[in-house]
């Protein structure tokens, strides 16, 4: 397994929900996602032919030729093909990347009284969350503030921005109703067992040079965000494989409605006008988060460990949460994950690894002893692992920087334990026959020892040292070969009393409770 340094993970405020306000009727939208060849276009044609929904539908597609529909099929519907334009703001924030023609087309359709519903067929390489963000209140606010920040934008794109801003944002006139991901049953498992990047499969003409996503990354993104998952081409796999796939899908996205289909033949009422979509639930409803929230002590061959609520280990698909209250040694973790050569060798090594071979997906948060003020984000799909900076631990933030919602604050406080607040390791592993003891043994071997922990605590508890000085000393003691993370933008003079009350347990003479790692819950 290798660390793939993808785009920087940034912490952004979670939108409260997609607005549904009184006033003009909001045009409902279904978003279809899925790899090329999964059956999206066949599903789209099936919807257009159906009389079950009773709606006059507008369809936004990326390739009209692939739809290949005749006049009879579109007699009662409308099909358009906008050319996607991406306007990148100077600040580089992905939340402010405006998909110009999509916005313009939806705005135009919303003004037409004869259109009752819209279906967007996204490209095979798109992430549904990026389209969903277009509908959020926060995205609309960003647009209102964006005009003076844009560089090298043509007049047409500027006009689009102004039109949408004058409407009050896209959410005023259109809303996401359903997000559907179509999955090819025959290729699902093999797409986990590949080291291919998107550019390897689809070519550099289709993928921008900065896009370093892998096939496995994209597939997981599409599965975890959807509220309807359609496992298509089930006739191409046997019943045992079908059950393995279904079980895996349910672990990756436990909130989604799962449909099984051949030739994309499903009840269209499960795809259109379902009113299932909720942005907050979609962004936080993936299986790895559910696993972290639903953990109990389970008896294993190595004693009690925290694990997700027990479920029948049907068809070998299971999950496991690794958790510890001691930081990783940067070199040891680096050696475990990174000391491997080319991607094909990485894939071969993963297939042969006694612990990692079974893992299809892992995600979570980690704590390095040399980076005590920020947590790392860990995301693995297939053979490739992506890590980055996730932001400051909540223990380092003052009360006023915490979310205001009482339930959210309570969830965060539940993550605090001992003198080091919410600092911890929490990684969820999903796969076929995942061995908790084997994975735990490998990761336990990457933790700093009790003696090293005492040395680390001595540095961290020295009130004469500021943050920068502590970081310098820790870097001198423990080799850190990881890529640089952004500097933490916090007041260096911040006293303990300005931090959150749950982090006030820093005392001299810490006992072995901190040195011994424990298992706990998580939220982010």
TrEMBL record:
<feature type="domain" description="CobW C-terminal">
    <location>
        <begin position="317"/>
        <end position="447"/>
    </location>
</feature>
<dbReference type="Pfam" id="PF07683">
    <property type="entry name" value="CobW_C"/>
</dbReference>
<dbReference type="InterPro" id="IPR051927">
    <property type="entry name" value="Zn_Chap_cDPG_Synth"/>
</dbReference>
<dbReference type="Pfam" id="PF02492">
    <property type="entry name" value="cobW"/>
</dbReference>
<dbReference type="InterPro" id="IPR011629">
    <property type="entry name" value="CobW-like_C"/>
</dbReference>
<protein>
    <submittedName>
        <fullName>COBW domain-containing protein</fullName>
    </submittedName>
</protein>
<dbReference type="InterPro" id="IPR027417">
    <property type="entry name" value="P-loop_NTPase"/>
</dbReference>
<dbReference type="InterPro" id="IPR003495">
    <property type="entry name" value="CobW/HypB/UreG_nucleotide-bd"/>
</dbReference>
